[in-house]
Design goal:
By secondary structure, the protein is mainly alpha-helical. The chain is built from five helices and two strands, in the order H-H-E-E-H-H-H. Strand 1 and strand 2 form a beta hairpin. The chain is globular, with a radius of gyration of 19 Å.
């Protein structure tokens, strides 16, 4: 016999409360919350406007595909490209922080990244490299954009 309306209602409220509490607990960690702020701010913007043009589903240069977050963190192939909590072990950090004229400097367009972008990427990795799964974490190829204000 199915549970009565009051039991179903109570179970629904209890499940919702647990789900909300779980989400709050995950981002209640100040480091993770800061990492989420960096991902949804300068990091995602940078990846979509500067990096994904050469590192996407159809053209994963060096095996790095920013449209598949697993390739960023997995140890398979050439990864991991990002080691949460450790910028110095992260290939992405190493590539963007090299001297501009180094052969492996990224992005490979010759425009170095602004200090704001570099700081955002480093702090994002240091604080846990938050990258949500699903729609929120999906990166899209956007118009290539260099913020000239960062260089003037």
């Amino acid at each position: 016999m199915p549970p009565s309306f009051s039991k179903r209602f109570f179970l629904s409220i209890a499940a919702t409360t647990l789900a909300v509490a779980g989400c709050q607990t995950k981002l209640a960690d100040p480091s993770l919350a800061l990492s989420a702020k960096h991902f949804h701010g300068p990091v995602k913007n940078l990846l979509e406007h500067r990096c994904i043009h050469c590192h996407h589903d159809n053209q994963p240069n060096a095996g790095l595909n920013f449209q598949d977050r697993r390739t960023v963190f997995d140890k398979a192939g050439n990864g991991p490209f990002v080691v949460p909590g450790d910028p110095e072990a992260s290939k992405v950090w190493k590539a963007v922080s090299l001297p501009k004229h180094h052969a492996r400097f990224m992005p490979g367009d010759g425009w170095d990244l602004s200090q704001r972008h570099l700081q955002g990427v480093r702090e994002w990795i240091e604080k846990g490299a938050y990258w949500p799964e699903g729609r929120q974490g999906k990166l899209r190829v956007k118009n290539y954009e260099v913020e000239l204000d960062d260089y003037l």
